[in-house]
């Protein structure tokens, strides 16, 4: 029987659906294993061959764990909200829901062709009200919670209200936007609105003034990773920094727990380091500086309190409220011009850019340690969101401050004995302190650090600051609160209405609050988000339902929130929903969550290191605090798949002609290289007729060939439509089959590495599967498998493979597994192996990689159940032992020939046999060997 992959793959994909092969339920008799791929966004272009890389890698592992007896959860769904569908809606008028459904259907069709073991009965879509019900629910829980620093967990906001009513802020230790102080009497005297404004300072989901990336053309706030070089990634529109009132999540409250949790999970060191740097823990002191000739004072945070005597200027972030307060009238025009320029740069760009810019405010601050008046500057190398948005500059011991001082001619005062700051700052935290205070000035305070080590000086200064009420010792984090508002239509609606300008939650029993229909997907003419076009978008608090805007009376009917949630909202707890996707009463049933707990293997790209992977960990920790998630960390092991790059092809057109010259002849002409569609090129040979039909301008093309062929040039580039190097997996599946595609993607190289797509090697993988098939069927369709005992050589070949593949799968070294399959099948083919005992286990081991052909052959072998339910074989070391060892025979260190000996042969017997061999006599030439060295199981060296 011929290997007809098209029939086989269709047959088994159909049967898997009919028999619900991949549908899974909780089973207390089996150990669970939860495999998850990062949520895909269904784009209009569909999948290219790079997209399934991670899915194939995780699918192999999921199938392997099932064969080991685990109860494997391997779900799939869609992160269905996104800007692309909304932009398409703006351009065409087609509702984003229609675009999204079309895209999902295309994705699903492509995914099904590749043969994944996804449990589609658990499919979720973030745009489905049944799903975002629980996103809205979680948001409400965050709104109604605050973070208690003493307990290090979220607590109900009602507890805070009761505490305020009985004792004010006395004894309060809660995460907040700013430190507040009031008595119980003051709290009880405040209006409802005033009390709500105070509570907003503590809520985990809160409304706050924050700097955002504002894109006027798109009419929305953009995340940092959606902005490139000052313009939007999508559309290339200008982006400016702007302060707006936005919904935020108090992620910063969880900073230490996010750091501590990294020690409990199996992630790569590089990814953990990325998260640690993003969270950015630093220990230091907050110190108060007074503005000269003013009642103003401001706080700075420093990790190097020991350098206070070296402060020669201060720097404010351009966004700081202090800028307007301290800038003198003489400097206002210059300062305003500078602020206007910095609006166009994102924080990420400012961090990356080392160029020096700044402007003097005209004001001075008093150094509390020296009494000196130091100038206050404004520069975009200071960020408003980190620390206090103001720094003390010590140019002798900080490289950024040093570059700034050099550029603007400011004093650089060294504080370490013997350090040279003539060319660069001295940043080392070692040495003996000097100039603290300087010997030639009258001390301003009773602190001297001179003669101390830097470590001693830091501790001494922190104590002094605390004892003299100059500030406080503090741990700071770079991690910011997450901006949670987007001025878009296509996103989750907030379950929020506004009363007297303050947000209130709609009743939990009324969730989900569904996205309304709108006439336009653009912002309104008055600048409101697209939901401002909705005519029925008000909340009736009596009847607990949505009603028409015209009925708003601000007594019982109030306006609803016009912003929607950001892209990461729906992907922050989807792993929990997969456990129990059809539960209408809870995000996840406690018993179900107790079974699955968290994700054992999470596969996705490194681009999510500081976005999704921070937000989802925060979200899960919050749900853990309110007793929803049974564990703190959502993803135990994380594997980042690399990217499959495009392998572009080029044709070479002779200038001012429509003649194309082959690669190795192009240097003889003046040519222009042009990208050509890789799908009309095979092994770098151009299909001339297909090229002429590809585009109208090439219909009359002429060619200068070499050996009757047109050879294309090539280069490795990003896979993109503009470079015509996108390879559609459907074409590969149609030509070679899904099993070939699966194995070839893994054969390209290690899962974690990026590598170019190159179809030149795919034929070899396809031939391997055909050769594997030929162990079962002859060319004349004769069934070859026999129930006969296996030979020692056959068992050795099989068990060598089992050992190799078992180890490789655990390490995700799939490329070397496929090499091992090829070697094993070649060995068995040469041994003319047709033993059921061998082939049956070979099918099981190959099944995770090539499930369709293995299902077919498992069925042919007489099994009534799926190969998925077979048992993963264990290798037997006895079969791997060598009976004989091949020794290299050397003379004076030079290898001359080889000899076979029994594996347990003694050294004396080996020496005698080597000396007796006639080939040895040729090299000994009648001499007496000085020494004979036998390295067991490797080499014999005769020293003459």
Ordered list of secondary-structure elements with their pairings:
Layout (H helix, E strand, L loop, with lengths): L4 H14 L13 E6 L14 H16 L3 E3 L9 H10 L3 H19 L14 H15 L1 E4 L4 E4 H11 L16 H6 L2 H9 L4 E11 L4 E3 L4 E2 L2 E2 L7 E10 L5 H7 L7 H11 L1 E11 L5 E6 L10 E4 L5 H5 L5 H11 L4 H6 L6 E8 L6 E6 L11 E4 L5 H10 L45 H14 L3 E7 L4 E2 L12 E4 L2 E4 L32 E3 L4 E3 L9 E3 L14 H6 L10 H7 L4 E4 L7 H14 L12 E3 L3 E11 L4 E3 L9 E6 L4 E2 L2 E2 L1 H7 L7 E3 L8 E5 L11 H8 L1 H10 L7 E2 L5 H13 L17 H20 L2 H17 L5 H11 L4 H10 L16 H4 L3 E8 L2 E9 L4 H10 L1 H7 L6 E5 L3 E5 L1
Parallel strand pairs: 1-2, 1-23, 12-14, 23-24, 25-32, 26-30, 33-36
Antiparallel strand pairs: 3-4, 5-6, 5-9, 7-8, 9-17, 10-11, 10-13, 10-16, 12-15, 13-14, 18-19, 20-21, 20-22, 25-26, 25-27, 25-31, 28-29, 33-34, 35-36
Helix pairs in contact: 1-26, 3-4, 20-21, 21-22, 22-24, 23-24, 23-25, 25-26
